[in-house]
Amino acid sequence: MANKLGEWIEERTGLSKLLKAALDEPVHGGAKWSYIFGSGLVFLFILQAVTGIIMTSYYSPSSTSAWGSVYYLQYKTSFGWFVRGIHHFGSSAMMILALVHMFQVFIFGAYKKPRELNWISGVFLLLLLAGFGLTGYLLPWDQKGYWATQVATNIMGTIPVIGKYIKILHQGGADYGNFTITRFYTLHVFLLPLSLVFFLFIHIALFRKHGVTPCWKMSKEVLKNRVDPFWPDQIFKDAVFAVGIYAALAGVVFWTGGAELEAPADPASNYLARPEWYFLFLFQLLKYCQGNFLIVGTVIVPALALAFLFVLPFIDRNPSLYPSKRAPFFGAVFSGLAGVIALTTLAIHHDSQDIHIIHQREEAEKQASRAVKLASKGIPPAGGMSIFLNDPVYLGEKIFKESCIGCHMVRGEGGENSPDFTNFGSREWVAGLLKNPKDKKYFGESGAMPPTKLPDESILDITEFLLSQSGNLLNINPERVERGKELALKGNCAICHPFGNKEMKKVAPNLTDYLSETWLKEFIRNPADPRFYGARNKMPAFDKLTDRELDAVVQYLFNLSKDRALVSEREEDGKKTYVFGLTSPRAIIDFKGKS
Amino acid sequence: MENSRRKFLKIASHALGGTLAAGVVAPLIGLTVHPLMKETVYGTEDFISIGRVDDFPVGVPTKTTITSSKMDAWNIFEGLVMGSVWVIRKEDNSLNVFSVNCPHLGCGINWGEDVRQFLCPCHEGVFDINGRKISGPAPRDLYSFETKIENNNVLIKFGSFT
Ligand code: HEM
Ligand code: FES
Fold first, then answer.
1. Residues of B in contact with A574 (CB under 8 A)
2. Shared-domain flag, residues A332 and A469
3. Where are the alpha helices (DSSP H) in A417-455?
4. For residues A181, A183, A184 and A190, what is the CA-based torsion angle, rounded to 10 degrees?
5. Which of B5, B29, B66, B156 could form a disulfide with B82, with the two C-beta atoms 3.0–4.6 Å apart?
6. pLDDT at A298 over 70
7. Which atom of ligand 1 is nearest to A309's Cα?
């Protein structure tokens, strides 16, 4: 039966004959490990295609939804991080392998007559790979992709005369927006793959026509007598290589946890853009081409290098494959490679020394994890950035960095003359204050408050009582609160600090509802109020902050310690309840009506 | 010798190819079937607040719009109109909440104050104030939602009904 079907198909298509012809292709001089790179690239291209196609069923190309959809793919599905990781690192692997392949065929002299077009189609493939990398980088619409791609489109803009138009055509407008994504998406998933398949077809057809270029050392006899069939001799080697590539990729994905996703693109931020590593050399080159010379780095050098690759088969006409006979070309190609490696190393080295870049990386990491946390509660339809606009902690941090950090330090950053706010409002922080208010971390030597001379346990009791008034202390210990209250009210604290009545004034700050939302707000608005520091106050009053801003600052302060709940924090991870479309009365009725 | 070597290479290539294909395809399938394993579109609240007890006069059905939020994959849509219900507060302050959609073909039913019955404009379905079917083509009584009262707030479980 199966045989009959096979025959039937064979009679009409000649499929198996075609396959046999393809597989039996003779490899003159024998199957070799040095020929695996091309097929490795074909495997990687297929891998990119299948992972890419599955990812398009999650990706949503618009400036308001791209980040969210990638976030969902990465964090909310079981295999999304893996598939995305394979695609991400697969692109780097393709770039590396294409270069290795190119150098292999260069060293073997495989670009020479009659294989000129084989080589040229290869250069087109390399350009297309760069195109994939460039367009793909933008698609997640995160900080990194957004800013790095701006550099690339600005480079387009420096091309004389037509640059301006090319740039607008790529961006889909004068600035980045929805059409930038849709255009890059069209390029990445339709135009570039179609072009790549087109050139790949030519590339492989020509390779089949001319056969493999053997090593120059191979003698005529071996070349003639040693003939291996493509299947299985060469395919076996190719298969081993493909398995090796995939295992290595999967290893990298597991090791790194997959591709990064930074915080959503914020057009108002000033992010120091860095391109994908394989464009770093161009990026570094630009640093040396300032002002009028910019065009040297953006257009002239790349164009010359490309032109050289395109014309190489025509200027190196000597039929000999011996590297010693092609010394000038080896010199040119390898000094080009050395230049690229040197520029890349310089770029990486420079960034690893640059304190701004290091800070920014840390900052970006923090932002990214905050973004992921906020996004888990759902991203408003206004887009990725809106998770921050509604996030008081984010706004609060911004205000803090503008207005407070000059005096108050947080995690090693900021002024030293006022209390350090690392871990602010936690049990540890308050207990530390009670124990030694004259510490540099708190009020310093000029502080008026004497240290509390009590056993640690009692200090912890007082701390628990003080913070229990704030209304958002987590895991309150009621016994401690009772004991602490006793100690505070009957002991020395109450001599200077009023408790239990907001309006009362004594020499030291009123500690009724200490560090609660209201207490903090009133304090920040006017620290010199007799209820607080009175005449001894040194902190400026922040009475110009709007209610929303003040609220945000207080939320930011709460967020500094793990002991305090954020007032605005909604339930973690929106509880899943009923399923839409399956349980609403309408749906059931509609369904009944139709059946 | 050469033949058995080739035989081995063939088997080995098939094995390698098969393993590779399985390794590539498995996570892709895992990713594709995600919507079978996890809800992607769902309401964020089990019980939705529809107002205070005093908003509903005793014995008079009041039509109320229900708004809540829903998660749609990565997006949250807040303040969405989910539908409408009829709310009837009883003498003992307990509540009946009915879907406005008729259990026949889903038309919006009205309250006829003169006859004190729910009337469906489409095919003359008639229901009493407790939602029980009196006449008409409907196969059952009105859809009713579970309710609870917390701090004088009326909450209904919009996701399921009886
Ligand atoms: C998407 C990227 C590429 C793919 C998928 C690809 C694929 C292949 C394949 C399958 C072969 C036959 C097997 C082999 O000799 O390794 C081949 C051969 C060849 N490729 Fe590529 N290639 C790519 C990029 C390039 C590039 C960037 C160049 C050079 C600029 C190039 C130049 C050549 C040449 C000259 C040959 C003939 C080799 C010979 O005669 O031995 N290819 N390519
Ligand atoms: S839809 Fe209400 S009676 Fe038919």
1. 44, 71, 76
2. no
3. 427-435
4. 130
5. B66
6. yes
7. 30
